[in-house]
Amino acid sequence: MVASVGLVSLFSCSHLKPSSLRWFSSTTHKPKPSAIVGISDDLVREWILKEGKATKIIRISPVGGGCINLAGRYDTDVGSFFVKSNRSIGPSMFEGEALGLRLMYETKTIRVPRPFKVGSLPGGGSFIIMEFIEFGASRNNQSVLGRQLAEMHKAGKSDKGFGFDVDNTIGSTPQVNTWTFDWVEFYAEHRLSYQLKLAREQYGDSVIYEKGQRLAKNLKPLFENVVVEPCLLHGDLWSGNVSSDKNGDPVILDPACYYGHNEAEFGMSWCAGFGGSFYNSYFEVMPKQPGFEKRRDLYMLYHYLNHYNLFGSGYRSSAMSIIDDYLQMLQV
Prior knowledge:
alpha+beta, Phosphorylase Kinase, domain 1, five-stranded antiparallel β-sheet
């Protein structure tokens, strides 16, 4: 049985990626059985029965999903597979997700659903097949989560600098991951400035744009005496993307991966519920660097701006407050 966990925090944080509810089975919110037909049975069945090594598919059942992607569980004689599809989006979105999942999986540090296949649907659209993980009834162990996440950051390194081999999405917002050797430049240009431009284009918000750009151009003092190495980040680590398997071990899913400063992983901490045991365990593996507390809000700013662009003005004041505080601190 897939546990129905985390639903309250999912909706309170309002950070719904197209597939962010995909793992949660709820008796009060399930797609109609006919929806599963939209996953293009023929292509999925063909892969499962050939590459997936199954000899028969026992049952196909819908999984409570997000508002864009269809989701289904395929039970077979060799185990279960999880399948998502989207009739209007090409395979690039799922390819980005699969690459991130594969790289995290290969670190052998923290459990993630193993991706198996991304494909195009006839007539347009795409699908992804991955491991189906049965969730346990309890939430993750914070101490173990902190340690395993730090081990993933320590193991997942890049010699290309900061970025990722593909662009992906943060929520439904494009996330640009152009390789850059300087972290401050990468974060200023491809994270803060990108979101600020979206806010100006979408809302005509020249105030937050101009103030935010002043901040983006003056970040270096926040990184004095700090060594920043490119670490593999989940990129969207909030409560809805963290759970536990039936053995109680942490599971992270729905990534927006890239290689970045390890501290940027805590940018969604306002919506993740990380406690003291999480941070204590994390910093035992990845020691805290000078100025960590001063940079925490900087990394939250990216996600507040993204929420502003996705969900509207309710998030503007939080973003604006962070920008104003940093401008005052840095005296720029």
